[in-house]
Amino acid sequence: MSEPEERLLMLIDDEPAQSRLITALAAREGWRTLVVQDAETAIATLGTRQGMQCAAIILDQWVPGDDACTLISELKTRRPAMPILMLTTSASPMLAVDAMRAGATDYLVKPVAPDRLMRALRSATKREAPKDELQPLTEKMPAVLDFDAMIGNAPSFRSALARAAKAARGHGTVLIEGENGTGKEMLVRAMHAASPRSKTPLRIVNIAGVQGSSVESVLFGHEKGAFPGAFDRQIGALQHCDGGTLVLDEVDRLTADVQERLVEAVTEGMVRPIGAAHSFRVDVRIIAASNLPLGDLAEAGHFRKDLLEAMSSTTILLPPLRERQGDIPALARHFLARIGDQPGLRPLSITDSALSLLAAFDWPGNVRQLQAVLFRAAVFCDGDALTAQDFPQLSELIGEFEDVIDHNQDGVGIQLYTEDGNLRPLDDIEADVIRLAIGHYRGRMTEVARRLGIGRSTLYRKLGDLGIDNAA
Question: Treating both helix axes as pointing N-terminal to C-terminal, what angle do 445-452 and 426-440 enclose, rounded to 10 degrees?
Answer without folding.
Answer: 130
